[in-house]
Amino acid sequence: MTGFADIPPTTLADVLDRSRVMDIGIRPLWTPVPRVAGPAFTVRCPPGDNLMLHAAIYRAEPGSVVVVESGDLDHALAGGNVCAVAHRRGIAAFVLDGLIRDLGEVRELGFPVFARGVIPIPGTKSRLGAHGEPVRCGGVTVGPGDIVVADEEGVVVVPAARHDEVRTAARARLAKEEAETLDDWERAHRARIEKTLSEQTALGGTASTA
Ligand SMILES: O=C([O-])CC(=O)C(=O)O
Ligand SMILES: [Mg+2]
After folding, report:
1. How many domains does the chain have?
2. Which of 23, 44, 58, 207 could be stapled to 130 by a disulfide with Cβ–Cβ 3.0 to 4.6 Å?
3. How many CA atoms are closer than 13 Å to the CA of 67, on its beta-carbon side?
4. Would you state the pLDDT for residue 108?
5. Is residue 106 domain-shared with residue 187, that is, in the same domain?
6. Which tens digits make up the pLDDT trace of 168-181?
7. Which pTM value belongs to this model?
8. Host domain of residue 144
9. Has residue 1 been placed in a domain?
10. pLDDT tens digits for 85-107?
């Protein structure tokens, strides 16, 4: 249990900066995907090869999110069988800066995969890379033990050293939002928007409003 599963990536993005949110190319490959949250098991594969990911499914702890740096959009990092074994070993999800194949099998399994897409060509399985080192995935540097929270909104990475602080700030924000009615929100929002609009207009802004 990470204590992050009930915190949406949107709330985490409100309390973290842009550098902790993966780029929009890393998407759930089937929908609706459940939210996943777990510590990262990091993997680096050389372009075109998937040996280190295929080994990682026998090394990552149950509940972990396997995060892969690859830098290749011509070969699949994994397919239906790799995902099925990962799933039954309790791995929570794959987050891949790359591609998979056998998407129909993966969707049928219900194994969450966040990646750049699908290609039917398998990668080779012959080259060493790394496990348990910082990797780059979706433009974010992910270290082992960072918490990865992902759903249809995107993928957010909470640095290991900031778990408690970020969890507390996110929970406070959620509690505040839950206590606020839509009427409260609209009143405060409208006042803020109208105030900024008139300030900017007074400063010589060019917006024309009816
Ligand atoms: O052979 C591969 O690289 C991946 C694959 O198709 C599978 O896991 O089913
Ligand atoms: Mg296959």
Report:
1. 2
2. 44
3. 33
4. 98
5. no
6. 999 999 999 999 99
7. 0.94
8. 9-161
9. no
10. 999 999 999 999 999 999 999 99
